[in-house]
Amino acid sequence: MGRVVLVTGVSRDLGGRFARLVAEDPSVSRVIGVDVVPPRVDMGDVRFIRADIRNPVITKVIAGEDVDTVVHMSVIATPGTAGGRTSMKELNVIGTMQLLAACQKAPSLKHLVVKSSTTVYGASSRDPAMFTEDMAPKRMPKSGFAKDAVEVEGYVRGFARRRPDVTVTMLRAANTVGPEVTSPMTSYFRLPVIPTVLGFDARLQFLHETDLLEALRHATTAGVHGSFNVAGDGVLMLSQAVRRLGRPNLPLPAFAVSSVGGFIRQARVADFSPEQMEFLTYGRGVDTTRMREVLGFEPEYTTAEAFEDFCRAVGPGMVSPERVASLENAVAGALRSDRG
Residues 6 or more apart from 61 whose CB is under 8 A from it? Predict the structure, then answer.
């Protein structure tokens, strides 16, 4: 008999796509998708159960369906889609705590896969060239999604100690890009004019959306214990990424980018958080040796190839000089207001 897999967060695009993908795997008998709202697309062979992982009812779902594998994809990075920062933290942290409590009580559970993020390493001027999975951040994230991800990983490690019989796989995914991805990073690169931090050129690593889904599928079926950085080969400098995208950029002092970021966030154009500001200043690199040698996964796309595919889908934007001048004037106005 094949695996019985429960996937959280299936109403969001990547969660739903992963649930449908793993349902096609011959080693999987059944897939149950859970979320607080129904998916907007046909889920095929995936059975959807409307359930909030923040509610203890998830315990009954796992036990009633004889689930042996849980894939947790409900840790989200965008406050706007969650209804604000408070709701986002509840979904990420409280939801994970309740899900792990349910897993703790499930004797049938054999495997837990958690989609995490390389944001747990933070971003600072003191960072190493490449973070390995055993390294801690040089500056702990203090807010937002990065702080949530650190807390989530702490609870997952606690669960692994309490249930040593369960194989726990944690995937720390680099920034995911692709034609269908909507995230703080892809929203930033979709801006008509891209603000950058004067005097800095951040190192970037990307993971193509199809490689993320395949990495999760591989982790679900392979059953390898441990934490793994998952990213495409190589790095891109932010300046290279902007040139490849073909959009104008606007270099600004750090304080000015922060002010403009707040304006962009309030206008709901993109989620320009302080943690993203730090990342776009210093960047981040992660070592993927364990991904290949221990997890046994090889991405199809390099970092550069993943970003190129995103660029082809987004296009150059075709911003007129008048539009650039208008945006520069708006930025100048925001800065005068901030200083006043």
Answer: 6, 32, 34, 49, 51, 67, 102
